[in-house]
Sequence to fold (228 residues):
Amino acid sequence: MSILGSSQRWYAALVDMYDIIYEAIARVWPECTRRVTRASSVGTAPRQVMARQAHEDPITRYLIMHLRRDPIIRDLPIHIESQRELLSDDPQTDPKPIGYLDICILFLTGSDKLYLAMECKRLNVRQAKNRTATQASEYVTKGMMRFVSGQYSPTWPLGAMLGYVMDGNMQNAYIAIRHQIEQHAQQLLYDPALFRDVKQLELFSTTHQRPGIPSELRHLLLAAHGIS
Fold:
């Protein structure tokens, strides 16, 4: 049983909500990238300020702002939060947050335990001298592992990763992630044989044999080459 009635019923609700959110992201992403690009180039802002606009946190905040304005999302009984603090249930422990959810889609049920968690990472980041860092290792070890370890969504078998592909090369980003997943298969509690073939590089899923509650992670890659 889950924290709120039938686990199967709520799992189905989570899956349905992810589908709705992904469709909404597809609708708002083009305008979101244009908004970030405009914010990065207005006036004579210092280069370091412009660079910060292309970091994952500002991109994620713009995405959330656009999602909140989406007419379909506005009619749903949910609230989308940015950088939601995760605190221990034990008031005798250190009050330091366990972590921060980049995107938290909270169901308005009266419980703060029922949420969809999305972790966001940049990929294929341009660096000096025309070099590109895939950052696929960080995507896996500092993103996916937070779900596998139970830091995020410990009571739910579903989580999501968003990858902002800064140079727009979706194939290279996908290949780099796939390679890193296979390299860290043991830590990820992951069997490469269970990898789901994808029809579109930007949308795939992985399954992790987390003790007690196996976890499925849904991955969505978003072309962000207009931002960098």
